[in-house]
Task: inverse folding
């Protein structure tokens, strides 16, 4: 697909995924690993798209799990921009995620705009309720916020992807070695943020040893992730068996 | 709660399983879509009640009254929230069949339950299930395989929709009792505990595989001996710098709250400075 085609697709993808149509389905569409699949299909470079997606996913792993629906950072905007740009300009995953971070922050403001405009439809629905107009209420809950979302979201991604490829390619040529290396360091550290956030969401201090067990199961024994998942599940279930119900958690 | 009278009332009911499923799908489809700062999920909750209310209330006046009732502030976790939907449907049905239940009672139940239900839902559906599913398939993505994205996209919605389905029907048939059953004997606590343990072990495993931080620092001494810092660190324990990084950020969030933008900027600055100084 041409850069124009890819830009249009990504603009629509960002709009559709952020529409949040389908509660848990859409929340998966927002994840960089899933965005990677679609970018891989349209750019015909699945391997790089998935690798950038995976690298970016690690940064945002804990972000979605923040209660209350307030987005502290937007993995979808970061992914919809950095993955296609990274693939088209053919840059290393770790460098691509360094580019992605500012967009993740920008996404927060975009979402605030959406939630503010959504208040209009509730007021409209109040009037429809008085008239017992159920079709009107359905329109307020689905159609109007969807249209408004397109106006807010599509142009951002479209413009940045369309004009960004060339800019990124030029940037890569003039970038000095020390800055390139700092991107690599950044790419190495950033996943730690994702894990730390997840840790604060699920972890009570008492449970931190389980994190350490998982860490050294890989660091010392080199176990694959699937093996850790299986052993972890068994440990959790056995603990349930042995601990008194009241003492748990 | 399920008295003989309830059973008789139910048998006269106009509601079918299909109506309840329809309500579940509307809520599932739009739980976040029309979310606004002002009343959060109230709009979608009202929308999800429309197939039910249209059947229950025949006059426009009653219908309008019922619709307005469900446009008040409402917000919870959208999967576990299905149980509140189920209970609300049961109450609306009883009301339409002539039981003396006023609007305040229905809204009282809704607002009373939305907090605790959100707490459970957030800790199971979002904090544990989602990162666990993603992390199991992450190695595929890292190797450049589409499976890493396709499997989470299928599994997560599938599992959560099944939970929703179970909860809305459970809420409908058992009414308020269903929540008591759900919370009883700490079984919910156990599920949360189990999910947390699995989640934490997975996060630890991924931290060891995906955070890469090593130092090229070494000191040359006059006697010709060289001390390579990374080698010393590795003899203590492997990947020590990665582990330290997670805990530094974790400690910061615990102390200062979730100030992600600040942390991101700090990481950028640290990376540039340490790159220039040759520390990492």
Result:
């Amino acid at each position: 697909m041409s850069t124009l085609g890819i830009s249009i697709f990504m603009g629509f993808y960002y709009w559709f995924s952020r529409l949040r149509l389908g509660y848990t389905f859409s929340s998966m569409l927002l994840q960089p690993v899933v965005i990677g699949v679609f970018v891989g299909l349209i750019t015909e470079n699945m391997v790089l798209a998935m690798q950038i997606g995976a690298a970016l996913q690690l940064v945002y792993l804990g972000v979605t799990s923040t209660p209350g629906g307030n987005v502290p950072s937007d993995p979808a905007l970061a992914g919809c921009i950095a993955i296609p740009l990274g693939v088209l300009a053919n840059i290393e995953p770790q460098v691509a995620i360094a580019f992605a971070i500012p967009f993740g922050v920008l996404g927060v403001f975009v979402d605030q705009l959406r939630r503010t405009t959504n208040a209009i439809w509730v007021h409209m629905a109040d009037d429809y309720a008085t008239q017992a107009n159920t079709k009107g209420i359905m329109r307020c809950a689905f159609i109007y916020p969807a249209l408004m979302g397109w106006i807010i979201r599509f142009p951002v991604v479209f413009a940045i992807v369309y004009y960004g490829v060339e800019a990124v390619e030029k940037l890569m040529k003039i970038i000095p070695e020390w800055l390139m290396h700092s991107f690599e360091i950044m790419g190495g550290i950033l996943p730690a943020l994702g894990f730390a956030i997840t840790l604060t969401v699920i972890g009570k201090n008492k449970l931190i040893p389980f994190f350490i067990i998982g860490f050294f199961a890989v660091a010392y024994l080199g176990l694959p992730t699937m093996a850790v998942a299986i052993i972890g599940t068994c440990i959790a279930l056995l603990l349930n068996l042995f601990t008194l119900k009241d003492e748990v958690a | 709660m399920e008295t003989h009278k309830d059973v008789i009332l139910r048998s006269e009911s106009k509601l079918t399983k299909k109506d309840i499923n329809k309500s579940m799908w509307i809520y599932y489809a739009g739980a976040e879509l029309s979310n606004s700062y002002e009343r959060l999920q109230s709009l979608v909750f009202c929308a999800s009640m429309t197939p039910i209310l249209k059947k229950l209330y025949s006059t426009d006046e009653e219908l309008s009254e019922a619709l307005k009732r469900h446009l008040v502030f409402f917000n919870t976790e959208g999967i576990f929230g299905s149980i509140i939907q189920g209970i609300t449907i049961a109450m609306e049905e009883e009301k339409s069949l002539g039981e003396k239940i006023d609007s305040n009672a229905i809204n009282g139940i809704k607002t009373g339950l939305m907090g605790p239900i959100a707490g459970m839902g957030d800790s199971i559906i979002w904090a544990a299930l989602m990162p666990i599913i993603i992390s199991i398939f992450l190695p595929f993505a890292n190797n450049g395989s589409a499976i890493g994205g396709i499997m989470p996209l299928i599994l997560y919605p599938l599992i959560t929709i099944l939970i929703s389905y179970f909860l809305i029907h459970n809420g409908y048939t058992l009414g308020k009792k269903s929540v008591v059953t759900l919370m009883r004997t700490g079984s919910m606590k156990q599920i949360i505990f189990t999910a947390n343990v699995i989640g934490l072990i997975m996060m630890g495993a991924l931290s060891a595989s995906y955070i890469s931080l090593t130092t090229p620092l070494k000191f040359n001494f006059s006697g010709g001996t060289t001390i390579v810092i990374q080698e010393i660190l590795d003899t203590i324990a492997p990947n020590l710098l990665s582990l330290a990084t997670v805990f530094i950020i974790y400690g910061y969030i615990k102390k200062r709250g979730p100030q992600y933008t600040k942390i991101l900027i700090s990481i950028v600055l640290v990376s540039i400075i340490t790159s220039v100084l040759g520390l990492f």
